[in-house]
Every structure is written in structure tokens, then in C-alpha cells.
Here is the input.
Amino acid sequence: MKPNFRNDYSEIMHPRILARLAEQNLTKRAGYGTDEVCASAAAKLRLKLTRDDADVHFLVGGTSANLIALSAFLRPHEAVICAATAHINVHETGSIEAAGHKLINIETRDGKLTPSLIEQNFARYTDEHMVKPKLVFIANATELGTHYALAELRALRAVCDRLGLLLYMDGARIGSAMAASEVGFADLCCVCDAFYIGGTKNGAPVGEAMVIVNPKLKHDFRYIEKQRGGMLAKGFILGHIFDVLFDCNLYLELAGHANKCADKLRSVLAANGVPLAYETATNQVFAIVPNGKLGRWTDGVICEINERRADETVLRFVTSWATSEEDLRAFEDAVAGI
Amino acid sequence: MKPNFRNDYSEIMHPRILARLAEQNLTKRAGYGTDEVCASAAAKLRLKLTRDDADVHFLVGGTSANLIALSAFLRPHEAVICAATAHINVHETGSIEAAGHKLINIETRDGKLTPSLIEQNFARYTDEHMVKPKLVFIANATELGTHYALAELRALRAVCDRLGLLLYMDGARIGSAMAASEVGFADLCCVCDAFYIGGTKNGAPVGEAMVIVNPKLKHDFRYIEKQRGGMLAKGFILGHIFDVLFDCNLYLELAGHANKCADKLRSVLAANGVPLAYETATNQVFAIVPNGKLGRWTDGVICEINERRADETVLRFVTSWATSEEDLRAFEDAVAGI
Amino acid sequence: MKPNFRNDYSEIMHPRILARLAEQNLTKRAGYGTDEVCASAAAKLRLKLTRDDADVHFLVGGTSANLIALSAFLRPHEAVICAATAHINVHETGSIEAAGHKLINIETRDGKLTPSLIEQNFARYTDEHMVKPKLVFIANATELGTHYALAELRALRAVCDRLGLLLYMDGARIGSAMAASEVGFADLCCVCDAFYIGGTKNGAPVGEAMVIVNPKLKHDFRYIEKQRGGMLAKGFILGHIFDVLFDCNLYLELAGHANKCADKLRSVLAANGVPLAYETATNQVFAIVPNGKLGRWTDGVICEINERRADETVLRFVTSWATSEEDLRAFEDAVAGI
Amino acid sequence: MKPNFRNDYSEIMHPRILARLAEQNLTKRAGYGTDEVCASAAAKLRLKLTRDDADVHFLVGGTSANLIALSAFLRPHEAVICAATAHINVHETGSIEAAGHKLINIETRDGKLTPSLIEQNFARYTDEHMVKPKLVFIANATELGTHYALAELRALRAVCDRLGLLLYMDGARIGSAMAASEVGFADLCCVCDAFYIGGTKNGAPVGEAMVIVNPKLKHDFRYIEKQRGGMLAKGFILGHIFDVLFDCNLYLELAGHANKCADKLRSVLAANGVPLAYETATNQVFAIVPNGKLGRWTDGVICEINERRADETVLRFVTSWATSEEDLRAFEDAVAGI
Here is the structure.
């Protein structure tokens, strides 16, 4: 079978989540996340984050989570600073604009914002004829597989404090970023005003856990969650999912496994002289292949085309908690054969 | 244990859906509903609906489904005619207004719109200083447990045709409505421009199947679905869910079971002289209890308070596919004891 | 010529405003309301209002003013309580909903809200599945020509304080309301969080002066004004207009004249036995005429049809600063002849 | 007195417009643009445009006009292609995003879009995870004072036809662009689906005339106009304004005068060795001055700072219908003295 590295959301769910759902399947619980399982999972997260006072909300998916958060946090004229490659800028069908907010998107080398990029762009917005930059959106890991070092995150926090900006992190792949760096759960709360811990791309069937640290952003969040269609009737399912993912470090174990598998891909590509488009240590690998060989690559491995250039193509390979030894061996064989 | 008739989304999922997910758990599939399971489930639905040309989209939840549909179907100045008790008017935190559209809400006796109510209200909107009524929203079953007879639905269709209005049906409990009436799947397509078949309240962990019949409403629907945060990454889960629910008539069997259980509640209440607030044949039962006895009722049975009146209270009891003989016996005992 | 009582915005502008514009026509000034004329007009208003700290913004028209204010003051899930007859509910094409906010509209006897109506409706909004009432919208004078006594306004203020609601007043016809009551400019600031003083219906060619009293509502208002298309490039025109209107009490003189003319209409109607639909002391008069005589009325007087009932019709007659003795005599003759 | 070239909306109105308003001041007319003056002015425009079937709507200002048009023409997922320097992208406080639409902004050399820029950007939007480019927004003259030749406009029309895009023109300074080129009124209708003819920057106190050529875009436009707060109660004022502006070619005469005055500025600057940032033939002139001399420039001439660079500053000088010989002489003297 052709090795499949299309993405990290190709299987239904981690077996331990499935086991939990099976075990609890017929237990009756209250709806909309007001049940004890959600309460207990939220408490477990707060413990992990070492922030008793953080608000935790279990949401359905990433686009929905970003849309709800930014709708809740911003007034109509307040804008979002993000990388040009940001998921909200490219791949969420204008959901933030549909909620009324302009994105100020910035070209970057590797998908990462820097204090100076933020400062330069912030400085261009000077009066009421222009939108008012209010929130910095980063993804960690980024859409290009890169991740932020702790010092980089702290520098972003500092510039946001200086400029009066909020810092929000899309953590769809925060597990992979954390497993690839020294950033711990407690750091996230020190650095961000709000962020979400992604479930879908790390073993969950659905689900992202929004964490709000800044007290000014907490008020009435559930209203916005409901209004934007993001409050699941059977919210206890999300509670079960995160309760399992945060049991005994499973969340970071799964992400660490994905990263190790990606390391293997990286070494296979290096061994075969295939250059990488971005230097990554997370579960996404971007390889540059000549257009003349593109057909052989896509015949050999299931993956996504990330970018088409004049003479070459950037392919994206993604590993996950479910990537197996067989997958890796098949990849090695396929690449060798190309 | 106290009998629990709080709602029809208290358990995780029907065991046959769980079995399917377990069986298919590690099969890799393409994301966002572009997989074969979604295709096959959609085909199965179209067959059931006897409409080869209907568009079927699997969405996550009811509020989200309504929001996506109405956003997709309406221009900014076009308004929605609905009952004052409509879920979109009362219990979706203004999601339709947040998408920019006014609701023209109409007082009704039993949660049901009629041609004359529609005509009277439509006639009040005469020029560009007012919104333009464009879409009639009905729920079937309604939020008060009542349902539409086929003749009633056809009369609504006729008035919509006469006035140039779209007819949209919120089918969160369409199974229960169909099991209680002569309305078949093919009828839905003849009557509605679009509707959704609810999964969450009939055995699914998540999921509603949007059906678009009117060709003018189909264009670019997936863009709106994505923009509003309603496109699940692991869309194949929804495919599996509806593939199971529409296997061998399971969907209507589950709804029929819920209705029969509600019949039992109705007969228990009648036997104990407890009056009903609305005459229903679906899985929702609304009982009127004197305020003096309210504590004994809520001590005895888990249910929701639907309405507080001066001297009495309306309690809502909801049955489901998961309601058991024990639940019904416990209800009978509890009511007898009050 | 047929007497014309269609509305109070039928002429271009009061001659004193025209004289000012002619005199200042070629003076170059800075744009967007940042000029000295706007500053001086705002200062003059603040003096009149006896509130040094009130923010004053000159806006173009009523619908625009309401839209800007409510967009600026409310978060997405926050709703507006208003009379069912409110202009924003009926005659602004759903502009507030298009900005994302639900209107909770309340049936009234005479277009006026009362503390108990507000309390009853407020109490129905209990959790995050519903919108959150946040702002009470009143018009003074109302759309039915009635006005609030000072005690009534104070009672509204008290109930808003009790419930944590903002009180906003649409003052399109505030001049007429003030000329008909003991309410003074200083009272408006004590009672309202924000309100606008209408120019268009009291002699101005365009223009309404938004006054924001509550400091929490002032922040970044000009951003919203610009974003919603309500910031006039030649803002100094609005400055001139209000500078003239608030010169030597002209504003209330014009409104007082309109009211006196309306008194005359009222006495003519009474003398001819024509009943009124609402008891008014402002510049709007609503007469009930039998449908059999409708043609003779509309042949005789230019006016608007306010409401069509089974056997009778409500006609609206509006006087203005421009109503002349001839108009009144012509009205008297016309009515006598019907 | 210091010569003032800040902008083209510094005076109240052209004297002929003032004369008309004075003459018609007390004539009673119907509201909201339903009067005979608006009808006659629209007819006059249609004649000038040689398009009997064009819809003409008189709106208040530019931001409002753009907002109304794009709200009326686009579905929620449809995006706007524009230059990065476009007024809607920079100076309208995110009004288009506030109406829900993403702007795809493109870096240009001179503020002008080209077919290849449009094609390249269009090609990047490939599926429903991204917005759908639907409308090309150009300003003519552009925000950098450049203008489109007729051949360029026709090439834009052709690429729009090829790609299924609408072409919309912001004509705030269309008079100046036309006076500087061979583009005639009839050409505008051949090239654009819709556009507006700017009044504010060419002698009007307020007012822009929206022209809709494409029949598919005409439906219910007045609803959107009202909903967005852009329908003036005293619409007949706008009718008078455009009736005067389009009397005997006044509109283009005024613009031609402004252009000639700008020619004089250009020759003065050239004579003094001051380089221009953009080559323009319209009423905007962008001069590059060294930062060391910036103070002397702003002491000598009233103008706007357009761009601050490391060592130099771009100043913008704008002429208008009201620019006098004295202004030009004073400019010449001031520049000579720097």
C-alpha cells in the first residue's frame, strides 16, 4: 500500500479515546458542556497549565475556534496582525472578515512573526481612517511546520505588551511544537492572552480546548461560542476526549511520536538528497522536488502539494500519532525508488 | 435512579454507530467530507429521498446548520419569517442576526406557522425602508413538540410559491415528526427548498445532514460551510454516522421508538390527571403542574422547565432512542407518587 | 395649492443655515470634522447640555447615527430592547441586525417603553443560549408622536441602572419632544448614556449630533463612524449647521413653531370631529378617518398613510419649522370641505 | 496666506450649486430620492452616459458608496481584488471587511491593477477553503494620482470577462481622470459593471452618483442603500447637486480646471528640481522632499504627508475646482523660497 502522509487527521481517533467513549456510551449527561466530565477535563488542563484561574472551553474545530475567539475579543474596527501564510488568512474562507475584522497580513520567511515585523506594521496604522491593530495571531507550530522557541514567544509577548496588543495562539499543532521545543504548558499561559490546544490533529475525532488567560477576555465567551454555532449539544464527548488526552501525558506522547516519525522522513529525504523548503522539527516536512519528477513522487506517496513554483514543487508530508513503522519503511522505499 | 427525560441528546451515540467507528477507526481517509464514506452516505440519502439531484452536506450541529444555510441563501436585506418560539429566534443566541438577517417572528398557538400567518406578516413589508421577507423557517417537529401534517406542509409550500418565498425546514427532530405522521422522505423534497435531517437528537454523537433541493441555493454552499466554521476536518466521521443511521431504516426506527416511549409518558400523565400544554405525538411532552407541587416533580423526574406561569409551570419530558423500559416504569412510579 | 403635511424634511434648509453656508462657502477648512467650526459647534452644544465632558460627533443621518452608535456600544451577543414600533425595528431595513445585533421588540400602547415592560422582557433572557439584553432604545418624540415626561425618562434611567442596561435615545425629533415638555438639554445627559440631537427634521439639510455621556462608550467612536460610512469629508458643513441651530435657541424655537402648528391641526381635527389615533403634543398628528372618506382626505391634503385597518385608516400629518399660516389655513379649509 | 493644497474637499460647494439650493430652498419635495429632481438628474446622467438602462442612485459619500455597492453585489464568501494602496484597503477603516468580505490586496508600482496582476492573484484561489475572488476594485484616478488609459480599462474588462469577475470603479476623482485622458462617460459604462461618479471631490458639498450597468447587480439596491445608512432623507438635495454638476458640462470643466492647476504645480516643482513620486496628469501631485527640508516645506505650503521614508518624505498636493491664480502664485513663491 502506498504510504500516506497527507495529514494528521486521517484516522477517526486514538484507541484510548474510543475505549472511553465505548465505556461511557450510555451514561446520561447534561448537554452543552455543563456536565461533570467537561468540568473534570477542564480542571485537569488547568492543573497541567498550572493556572487555576484559566477559563477552558471545549470547541469543535480549528476554524470555528479561531472565529469564536476573535469575534469575542475584538470590537468591529480592531484588526488582526498575522503572517501572510496564517491559516486564518489563507485557508479559512475569510471567516474572520466574515465576522467583520480586517487581517493585516505580513510576508515572512518561515511563517513566523517577529517583534520587528509586528512593530513595523503596527506603526502604519495611525488614525481612525484605518483599522486599529489589536491582536497578534500566531500559529505554533506554524502552517509551514516551523515552531517558536520560548525566547521568541517571550519576545512576542514583550512587544505586544509594549504596543497594547493581545497575543493569541492557534494551537492546532501545539503538541508537536511543544514536543519539538522547551515550551511547556505553563509557558503558554505566561505568553498568550488566549490560545487553543488542538485535539483534531493529535488523536481526537473532533475538539479543541480554548484557554483564556487574560481576565478581560473571559466575559460572556459562551454566548459567542453558542452564537457562532460552536457549542456542541453533546459537549460531554469533548470532555471525554480531552480527559483521555490529558491523562498521563498522552497528549505530548502522541505529538512526540509524530515528531519522531517526521525526523525519520527528514533523514530519509536528506539521505536521498531531497532539499527541504523550510527547516522544521515538528510533524510537517516540506520537500522540494523538481517538476520533472513530480509524477513519480505523487505516484509513490500520498501527500499534499503545498506550492507550485516555476521549475519545482513543494510537497508536504505530515506524520501523526497513527504513523506506523510500516508507513515509515514504505516511505523510505518509495523515496529510494524515485 | 431518578428517571431522566431531560432531552434526546444525553447519551454519546447509538451502539451501531459506535461499532462502525470502532471497525473503521484506523482507516485513513481524505479530509473535509471529500471521502468515499461521505459520498456513499450522501448517495444513500438521495435514494431514500428519491431525489438524485439533491445536494447533501454533512454538518456538525443544528445552530451551525441553520446559520450556514441562511447565510448561504439570503442577501443582507432579506429576512426570515419564523414562529416566535422558533429555535433560531429564542435559543441560538441571535446567530442569524449575527449573520446580518432580521427575523420576523410571529406569535403562534402551537409553534406552527400557517399560510394566513405568513401572508399577514408578509403583507406588512412594503418597501425598501423595511427588510424583505424571503425565507420561511419552520421546525418539524416544532420546539413545542407539535408536528406538521403533510397537507399543512403542502399548504406552506403553496403560499411560499405564491409569495416568492423560500421554505426551509429545521429537521433537528424530523425523524420524530415523520414517525408521528404520514410525511415521508420524498415529501420533504417536494415541500422544502432546503432542510436538514437531524442526527444529534436521534442517535448520532454529532451531525446533521443538510439537503438542498432548490438548484438556485446550491452554488458554493461548501464555501459558506467552511467560512462559518462548520466543515469538520474528519468529515468521514459524519459520513459513517449517517451511513449507519440510514442503513435498513434505522433512523426512523429510532425515532419511532422515542415516539412510542413518549406515548407511554402521555398515557401515564393522562392517567394521573396531569394536563398537557400542547397536544403532541412526537418525542416531546409538555405537562402543566401546579407551582405548589413543582418541587416534588423536579425531585422525582429529571426534566427541563419550559415555562413559568403565575400559578403553574410547564415541564418538558423528552424521550429518545435510548429510553428504556426501566425509564418508563420509573416515570410511572414517580408520577404516581407525586 | 394642496396643503402639504407629509413630513418635516420636505424643504432644503432653514434660511439662516443657508446664509451661513453662503457666507462661509469658499473658506478652506480641514476635513472629516477636525476643523474649528465643528469644535466650536460641539463646545456650544456642551454648554447647552451643561456637560463639559460629553463627546459630540456630527453625523449625517438618523439611520446611520443609530447604526454607528449601536455598533460602537455593543458586543456581538448583546441585544437591543425597543418598542415594536421603533424606527430601527420597522423602518431602517434591518440595519441593526445587519450590524449583527438582535432587536427585542415589545408591543406598546403608544410607542413608549415603560420600566415594567423592560423588566418583563429582560427577565426572559436567562442564559447563553439566548442573546443578552444590553441597551434600551427609545425615540423621543416616538414614531407615534408621543413623548416622554421627565419623570418617565428618570424611571427608565432607574430601571436601566437596576438591570445594568444602557439607555440610548434616538432624538430625530427631540426638539419637538422638548418643546412639548419640561425636559431640558441638561436632563438628556442625566438620563441617557448616549443620544442624538436631530438636525434633519428640524431645519438642517443633513446632520445629527451624537452626544455620548457615558465615558465607557466614548472610546474609538470615530473609528466606527468612519467604518460605517458616516464620516462626512466636508464635516465642517455639519459644524456650520449645528452652530447656527444652537445659536440663540434657534433649535427649540423651530421645534416650538412646529408644535404650535400641530396644535392648530389638532384643534381643526377636533372641531371637525375627527378622532386621533394617539394623543400627541408634538409635531406629529395621527387622525383616524373612515375608509369611505379616505380618497377625499388624500385628495385634499398631502400626508402619509400610517396604518390601514379594516374599516378605517390612520393618516399622519407632520408640521415643521417651515409650516406657514397659509398651510394651516389651507388645512382648515380642506378638512372643513371633507 | 499660506497656499493650501491639502485636498479637493476644503470648500463647501461650487457657487452654482449654492445658487440652485438658494433658489429651491423652500420648495417642498418627497423624501429619500423619490422626487422629480433626482429623477431628472438621473435622466441627465443617463443621457451623458448614453445608457438609457443604467440605474443611477445618489449617495452621500465615498466610503458609504463603496460599502453599499460591495455589500449589494457580493455573497459572503466572495472577495475583492484591489491594489494594496486602494482606499478601501487603507483608508476606510476596514468597512468592507466589516461588511464581511475579504480584500485581496496586490502590491503595485503606481496604484494601478493590470490584467496579469489580476490573473496571478486569481489563480491562487482554488477551492472552498479559500475565499472566492469575485470583484475587481479600481479607483480612477487612483489614490496615487495615476489614471487608466482607455486601452488599460478595456484590458481590465477583458480579463474580468475571462475570469468571471465583476469590475467596479471608485470614481471619487473620475472627473480628473477623464479630463486627463480620452475616457468618456460612455466608455465607463462599457468597461464597468458599476461605478460611482464622485461629487464631493469635484464641487459638491456631499454626494456621489452610483451607476449600475450590469442588470444582475441592480436588484434591490435601494434596500442595501437604506440598510447601510446611505439613503438621505432630503435626497432632493443630491438631485439638485448632480443636476447642476451635469448641466452644460460643468462637471468636466471643474475637473479640467483642477488638472490644469496641477500641471502648474508640476511645472513649478520641475523647475525647482523637485522629483515626483508618481507620474500623474490628474489633480494630485506627489513630490519627494529630503527630510532635512521637510519643515520648510510644511511651513510654506499646507499639504498632506503621504509617505515617510528613511531619508525623504512624499508630500501630496491636491488642486481643485476652487484653486485660484493666487494659490498657484503663492505656491510658486513658496517653492522658490525653500
About this structure: The first helix of chain D runs from residue 15 to 24. Residues 15-245 of chain D form a domain with the Aspartate Aminotransferase; domain 2 fold (CATH 3.40.640.10). DSSP finds 14 helices and ten strands in chain D.
